[in-house]
Amino acid sequence: MLRHSFRSSLLLLTIVGGTTAAQTQTSPISYPAAARGTQVDVYHGISIADPYRWLEDTDSPETKAWVEAENRATDSFLATIPERAAIKNRLTELWNYARFSAPFKEGGRYFYFQNTGLQNQSVLYVQDGRGAAPRVLLDPNLLSPDGTVALSGQAASDDGHYLAYSISTSGSDWQELHVRDVNNARDLPDIVKWVKFSSIAWTHDNKGFFYSRYDEPTSGNKMTNVNRNHKIYYHRVGRPQSSDELIYDRPDQPDWLLFGSVTDDGQYLIITVAQGTDERNRLYFIDLDNPGKPEINNPVVRLIDRFDAKYEFVGNRRTMFYVRTDRNAPKGRIVAVSIDNPREERWNTIVGEAKDALVDATTAGNDIVANYLQDAHSSIRFFSASRDDRRDQLPRQPQQQQRNPATVYDDTSTAPIVTRGLPQTSGGFTPRGELALPGIGTVNEIHGKQGDDELFYSFTSFLYPTTVYRYDLKSRRNEVFRAPKVSFDPSRYETRQVFFASKDGTRVPMFITAKKGLQLDGNNPTLLYAYGGFNIPSTPSFSSANAGWLEMGGIYALANIRGGGEYGKDWHEGGMLAKKQNVFDDFIAAAEYLIREKYTSTPKLAIRGGSNGGLLVGAVMTQRPERFGATLPEVGVMDMLRFQKFTIGWAWTSDYGSSDNAEQFNYLRAYSPLHNIKQGTCYPPTLAFTADHDDRVVPGHTFKFIATLQAAQGCPNPVLVRIETKAGHGAGKPTTKQIDEAADRFAFLVRELRMKPALQ
User: Fold this and answer.
1) Residue 608: in which H helix or E strand, if any?
2) Cβ neighbours for 490, distance < 8 A, ≥ 6 positions apart
3) Whole-number pLDDT of residue 726
4) Theoretical Cys-Cys bridge with 32: which of 69, 233, 388, 703, CB 3.0 to 4.6 Å?
5) Residue 666 vs residue 399, higher pLDDT
């Protein structure tokens, strides 16, 4: 983050009224003053003022004073909302239930996470066999008194003897690796630092693991410095980090990101070479020769050395690699690539492109398990090698009549869903059927390995708390492994999936969850959420916070807008670079649908989004300020002309473009939230969220946006910011902070949407 001079102490500034948007306050709010500097940047001959550049320096005394003053102003405002305490109490009750992750298995041991309800961090347990008693292996709550040290990654050795794990402090992307003996739950002396954006991959001799890191920063601010020159190292258990071996780096390609994984048979190190967040990548490998005595310094083989499509390693049978790709298949397919003859004309499609988007795949037992999205909800399909025809096929699923033809479904149902046609395959793979899920929702975890006779997965939906299932690959039977008990009655609510036309006529889906028997009179408080970027799909999931919102009489709407991965490559590319405006148009069209169909009205409609979704909220509220009753931009990318200058921001240019490019500068400037705030406009009531340790989307984005918006606001509608301390972009946030944040969010909406919730 750049430093810039700051003059004058903090003063109170009164904002006068305007007439554009609906006003919810009868008197203006006084905000901490933010001095306007004289910084001007020239982009391709065009001068752009950046008067709040000094707020990019999060460590300066002036910025810290501004942060403290803004938090005081926000706390003072929220303290006047009578319902705030009751909201927090009810959210605490809703959060207080036992939650589990899907287990993963190594060396006959089962590892899984459990949170008893209100623990700040989930605890890692281990069972020495499926029938053995679980025991605590690692409790992150003991690593800090306030729960701000989180377990951010973990991998057990092949024999289950060791656990390598990474911890993150205050939400930072920087990680520190440790090694724990699973037998006695004690740490070894090993400490590995300056790890970031890394996997952990053990060699099958159980003596060490591969990981990725950057060089230790030698100057500047480690929280805001640009990250370049990613490298893969190998750490041997019991040795100091100084003796770790460099496995692969590319100093000629400083923007490459390098990730290592070891195949289930221990034979190969797979190196995925990415360039920022671009979906395209290269695929390399190292033949380790003997899994029991791996040769980690063998040469790197560039299996697919072109940057023209996605190539994701799925699994292998000896020298035949299975790769998920969108090469000549925008919805995705799986090809078999022989490492002995990897020319593309020799590739064999083993799972062909389907009408639904193939978003993930793995191997378990003798199957390829493919995860598809059908209109933004999961469908899990199995494919087996023909030589395994002796294996029982999945039982045919009974056809089920649609309970609600008007696209309403009850996602609390336990009935199987209808089996759909599976894609054509060749090369010896046969479709075996589809996993019967509890309803329309999302499968978030699939844990299994080649040769296993079982896999575990988790399922969730808007009204279906995350439940863990075990699937027997031999008998093809499904059973509940861990089910939560939540203090919430889902039978009172229903989810409807609708489709609306965007500005250019594109058909866009949206999920709407609300109380059964809802009156469509335009008076329902509604929270509309979306993301729309980086090929990341937004799919149904349960949230204790959203359950509380439903109980308060709210509607929750999730729009599956372009830019995400709901419909494959074309859907993503339809909302990136010069087509980014499509994302905003889709979101505005979603809001207009909700208003047109009388679900809600402008004074009752709030919008929310985080990170890229924070950019989304910032863009639409500056383009259409009159459309929304309240806005909640969270950890958003608000300065589209400078985002690439901090930490990993340069990696997002694949989706956004860069102001360094004259053509891209023009469209970035056209929608950049910071640069489209207009003096005297009446903007909707706004509560922004950021965190002082966010080293992914640095808080300077939100700081500058809010300072500019407060100075420009043309009516008494509040413009506030909630700046969390000892927190980052969101991952690893303690439960207490999550509850506090959600309570403040809903208290703000109760006030600004003029709600009268019947709080339990």
Assistant:
1) strand 605-610
2) 412, 463, 464
3) 63
4) 69
5) 666
Residue 72: is its pLDDT beyond 80?
Answer: yes
Cβ neighbours of residue 756 closer than 8 Å, sequence gap 6 or more: none
Grouping H, G, I as helix, E, B as strand and the rest as coil, residue 484 is coil
Q: Can you give the three-state secondary structure of 708-738, one letter per residue?
A: HHHHHCCCCCCEEEEEECCCCCCCCCCHHHH
The structure tokens listed for 425 are 């395959």
Rounded average pLDDT over 237-242: 97
Confidence of residue 150 (pLDDT cuts 50, 70, 90): confident
pLDDT score at 548 = 98
- Inter-helix orientation angle 61-78/700-712, to 10°: 60
State the maximum Cα–Cα separation within the chain, in Å, rounded to a whole number.
80
Burial state string for 43-77 with b = 16 or more CB within 10 A and e = fewer than 16: eeeeebebbbbbbbbbebebbeebbebbbebbeeb
CB atoms < 10 A from the CB of 180, how many? 20
Please say whether the beta carbons of 307 and 284 come within 8 A. Answer: no
DSSP letter at 391 equals S
Q: Residue 647's pLDDT is what? A: 84
Instruction: Kindly provide the b/e burial profile for residues 234-262, where b requires at least 16 CB atoms within 10 angstroms of the residue's own CB.
Output: bbebeeeeeebeebbbeeeeebbbbbbbb
Q: For residues 376 and 560, is the Cβ–Cβ distance under 8 A?
A: yes
Q: In residues, how long is the chain?
A: 760
Say which residue, 27 or 584, is predicted with more confidence. 584
Q: What value does the mean pLDDT take over residues 474-496?
A: 96
Q: Are the beta carbons of 512 and 493 closer than 8 angstroms? A: no
Q: What does the pLDDT read at residue 650? A: 86
Beta strands 464-472 and 175-181 are unpaired
How many angstroms separate the CA atoms of 9 and 480, rounded?
Answer: 60
Per-residue pLDDT band at 428 (split at 50, 70, 90): low
**Amino acid at the residue 559:** A
Q: If you ran DSSP here, which 8-state letter would residue 234 be given?
A: E
CB-neighbour burial class of residue 13 (10 A; exposed 0-12, middle 13-18, buried 19+)? middle
Positive or negative, the Cα torsion across 403, 409, 415, 421?
positive
Residues in CB range of 201: below 8 A, 6 or more apart: 155, 209, 210, 211, 260, 261, 262, 269
Residues 123/140, Cβ–Cβ less than 8 Å = yes
* Residue 375, token pair as written in the block: 């209109």
**Residues catalogued as catalytic:** 611, 694, 729
The mean of the pLDDT values for the chain is 90
CB of 493 within 8 A of CB of 547?
Answer: no
The pLDDT of residue 426 is 53
Give the N- to C-terminal CA distance of the chain in Å, as an integer.
45
Least confident span in 159-173, 423-437, 452-466, 746-760: 423-437
420 has pLDDT over 60: no
For 418-469, give the DSSP string: PP-PPPP--TTEEEEEE---SSS-EEEEEE--BT-SEEEEEEEETTEEEEEE
249 within 8 A of 258, measured Cβ to Cβ: yes
What angle (nearest 5°) sits at the alpha carbon of residue 117, between those of residues 443 and 134?
75
Cβ atoms of 604 and 523 within 8 Å: the answer is yes
